[in-house]
From TrEMBL:
Keyword flag NADP: yes
Classification via InterPro entries: DHFR-like_dom_sf, RibDG_C, Riboflavin_Biosynth_HTPR
Protein name: Dihydrofolate reductase family protein
Residue ranges, annotated region (Disordered): 164-203
The keyword Amino-acid biosynthesis belongs to this UniProt entry's keyword annotation: no
Taxonomic lineage: Bacteria, Bacillati, Actinomycetota, Actinomycetes, Micrococcales
UniProt superkingdom: Bacteria
Organism name: Oerskovia merdavium
């Protein structure tokens, strides 16, 4: 994910680069060597990210060359660039709903979303760009509290109670478990409850689908991405690799504990490293675009 400066801005960055097609689409070489010039309508670039009808879950993440998912300020804005921003805007324009973990909503200061300016035609017939936040705690950041367009909240019963309690008077009513509650005010860290079993992500996506929100764009963060992958709910992963080295410290674009595998070691090794997950997932490269050392890859998981 993420914008050059303000993640929620719908304004185009001042100078967006042309993108060279290195591979694809479809992993084929027939468009290799062509160049996607910047156009006001961005239809050519959008065609590279067309998705099939029905529920389609795409994640869009940015990584430094050495695998970091954020920069020294703990935000992804310090590792992305204008090429990433160009793709980011088009992916938002193509989405019905942006899905984020509450950690990302807090770290990146998410607010209600708008379709990137000038790209409204890419979503003809679709509704406004919605935001859905996944949370166990039910606590949303201040930037989302009490706004005129509160987000959908995917949470469990416990989180839904917390979220509903913070809906401002006159706020939209909540839904059922695994939840599409519209929520409001955040709480302080001291208010955070004990960890709970957590929401059913599949049910959450089904609830969005029932509302016609089938084109889901997950903008992270790393814990949510890991959970979507573990539940086999991700159709596609777009990763922009930017020519930046952040060194040790920042995490990867997936985070959390690996799933328990029968017979495998479950704790850290003697070297202090966590065991790897069972079988690596092997996505298929759909296309690879390039500008100034930045590589924008579209990986299909199905
Ligand atoms: N490189 C990139 O493209 C990229 C993209 C996004 C974010 N980031 C960076 O990643 C960092 C944040 O990392 P993160 O892993 O904490 O982000 P995250 O996955 O967005 O946040 C984790 C939090 O989100 C909620 N959550 C995530 N998965 C959940 C699930 N399956 N069920 C219930 N709740 C779930 C929980 O919120 P509660 O605590 O409320 O229960 C959890 O504590 C920031 O520095 C941000 O800048 C980078």
């Amino acid at each position: 994910m993420s914008a050059v400066s303000d993640v929620t801005s719908s304004s185009p960055a001042p100078s967006l680069p042309a993108l060279d097609v290195l591979i694809g689409p479809g992993g084929a070489g027939h468009l290799a060597g062509t160049r996607l010039e910047v156009t006001p309508r961005e239809e050519e670039l959008a065609a590279f990210y067309a998705s099939p009808p029905g529920l389609h879950v795409r994640a869009n993440m940015v990584s430094s060359v050495d695998g970091g998912a954020w920069g020294p300020d703990h935000r992804s804005g310090t590792i992305n660039d204008a090429a990433d921003w160009r793709v980011f805007r088009v992916l938002r324009a193509l989405a019905d709903v942006v899905l984020v973990g509450a950690g990302t909503a807090r770290a990146e200061g998410y607010t209600a979303l708008d379709v990137p300016r000038g790209l409204e035609h890419l979503r003809t017939g679709r509704g406004p760009l919605e935001l859905a936040v996944v949370t166990r705690s039910g606590h949303l950041p201040a930037s989302l509290a009490g706004g005129a367009r509160p987000p959908f909240v995917i949470t469990d019963e416990h989180g839904a109670g917390i979220a509903r309690a913070s809906v401002p008077r006159g706020g939209a009513p909540g839904g059922g478990p695994a939840d599409d509650t519209h929520a409001g005010a955040p709480r302080t860290p001291q208010d955070l409850p004990s960890p709970t079993p957590g929401p059913d992500l599949r049910a959450g996506l089904a609830a969005l689908t029932e509302r016609g929100l089938t084109r889901v764009l997950c903008e992270g963060g790393p814990h949510l991405l890991a959970d979507l992958l573990a539940a086999d709910l991700l159709d596609e992963l777009c990763v922009t690799t930017t020519p930046v080295l952040v060194g040790p410290g920042p995490g990867r674009i997936v985070a959390g504990l690996p799933p328990l595998v029968p017979g495998a070691a479950t704790g850290p090794t003697a070297g202090g490293e966590m065991p790897a997950s069972a079988d690596p997932v092997r996505p298929r490269l759909e296309h690879l675009l390039h500008a100034g050392g930045t590589l924008a890859a579209r990986w299909a998981l199905r």
